[in-house]
Amino acid sequence: MSSIEIDRVSKAYDGPLVVDSLSLCVPSGTVFGLLGPSGCGKTTTLRMIAGLLQPDSGDIRFDGVSVLAVPPERRAIGMVFQQHLLFPHMNVEQNVSFGLRMQGVRPAASRSRVDEALDLVRLGGTQRRYPAQLSGGQQQRVALARAVVTNPAVLLLDEPLSNLDTRLREEMRALIRSVQRRLGITTIVVTHDQGEAMELSDQMAVMFDGAIAQVGRPAELYARPDSARIARFLGATNLIPAQVVDTTAVDLMRIDTPFGSLDVCPGNSAPTTGSPRVVASIRCEHVAIVDRHIDGPTASGVSTRDGARNIFTGLIDDVVVGAGRITYAVDVRGTRITAVEVSDAERARGSTVQVRLPCDRVRLLPFDPDLAGR
């Protein structure tokens, strides 16, 4: 399987850059997620890797060798698109074997490889069916079988699950991971779905405005984003404008927020410009709701006892009940703090509660006037 290097690649369509000097390394045999909002350039990047578009500048290398002069059909790539693009007049076997026929594989060998690919995607026995006789999930499995039957060195998935319902998306995620692990194909998944990228990827990159914002393992990016924009894009979080007021303590630092002072861990800070103005981010599931003070915090929310740090009184002004989890919006001195509890016991709207923001769960990010407090 091939490693992939994208080296300062740029692409423009009649004006502004869609991809701007982008560089990435995808290790051989891994799943790499390219995550970003619509229009950020991720599909353009994928199409350049596939050879369907030529970059305006930069280089793309497979195993250290440039492929810019190699046509798409000779790059040993399998690709699955958002639309399955099956031929409606061909049955499943004919659709899956299409690439093998283009390679000149003999019919007997082709049938054997098609059968193996269909078994791999759990569609054995469907060879004689036509696309119209299959469900949407089955059609996408056929497209996946067609992509891997040629034994590609690289598998490219462009929003492959966006047209499926929630249950089918979950099933297809598990299937894609199973197929990738079985075959060991270097895989790039393009998606705007954070959960999809995090579940499928060994490593992932967050992309905004044609450029890479941050690269890392999914859990690392979720827990330690470099900016408020990344934090918000990767999942629900509280973004609180703040100012650093005390950095003298070894194990804690003090910040002021609109609702009081917080103690936070110095090691949980993204690189900043050195300005005391920051954004404090804490994931909604890390905000704890307690029914009473623990050893009585001070009025500012800070206590000398570790268990009682960062506790504030607030009023529940909204409740959203989901499957096994409840989301609360708590008004704390005019600031809306969102908390998620895994529970079936619903707290009443209008209840007075305390919310606790654990010191080690608050991450300090560079100040962003467009996102702070939203």
CATH H-level superfamily of the largest domain: P-loop containing nucleotide triphosphate hydrolases
CATH topology of the largest domain: Rossmann fold
Instruction: Report strand %.
Output: 25-35%
General form = globular
Q: What is the terminal-to-terminal distance?
A: 44 Å
Number of strands: 20
Q: Kindly state the mean pLDDT as a whole number?
A: 89
Strand count, sense and closure of the main sheet? 6 strands, mixed
Unreliable residue runs: 295-306
Strand order of the largest sheet: 6-7-8-3-9-10
* CATH architecture identity of the largest domain: 3-Layer(aba) Sandwich
Series of secondary-structure elements, N-terminal to C-terminal: EEEHEEEHHHHEHEHEEHHEEEEEEEEEE
Instruction: Indicate the percent of residues in helices.
Output: 10-25%
Rg computed from alpha carbons, rounded to a whole number of angstroms: 25 Å
Number of helices: 9
* Secondary-structure class: alpha+beta
Q: What's the domain count?
A: 2
* Name of the CATH first level of the largest domain: Alpha Beta
